[in-house]
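Listing S7. Sequence submitted for prediction.
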Amino acid sequence: MSLELINISKTFQHDNAQENLTALTDISFTVDDGAFISIIGPSGCGKTTLLKIISGLEQPSTGKIFLKQIEVMEPSGQVGLIFQEYALFPWRTVIDNVAFSLEIQNIPRKIRRDRARYFLSKFGLEGFENKFPKELSGGMKQRVAIARTLINDPKLLLMDEPFGAIDSQTRNAMQEFLLNIWQETKKTILFVSHNIDETVFLSQKVLGLSQRPGTIKLSLPIDLPYPRERTGQEFNRYRKQILDYLSEERTTLDR
């Protein structure tokens, strides 16, 4: 078992006690080593907050999280976090963006650049080493962001809507790219998305959060072989199950 969440809840405290906001309540699940799990749910249900708690950037109000049987208390190199925003340094070249975390660890320049070149080669970015982020397409920027995270060899990769800012054609290509990277590296991935087709295409299991305060209301294994046919009958059956779940959550909100 790679990751274990036990009764996680999160309430944001305000000066006025009447304005306290409970974002998450009683969330418990486990993730096996090398699994690809997606989290889906209505807007504002706490998906990003949950990833921040798992990464150690936020502390839960109650509950505990264990990664490789060690309690998560603060950020560490064991967990990589990728957001929708590429968060690349605009004044640094591609190779220096990818090598940045090695630089702050005082790893010698040649070693960190050689390692960065290896990832750039794996990610189809040869020839762009000395370009700046403004010279890259959206898909290329996200590949640089993923390379910058993987260069640290994290055990767990947390991805929060990583393809939400790119066009649909590039998004499909990036999904296939990520699938190949996952199958090659065997990293454990927790992936937040609003895109139903994306979650069915990528995931071994989909977890659905309820309306706020978010709690686990859906746990749906996706029992389809890879690569997956997006227009296949079984694919659409899983897609409909998730759509039905989200529709029920919207109906609950309207009651």
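Caption to Listing S7: primary sequence and predicted structure tokens for the chain studied. The mean pLDDT is 92. The chain has two domains: 3-78+155-254, 90-153.
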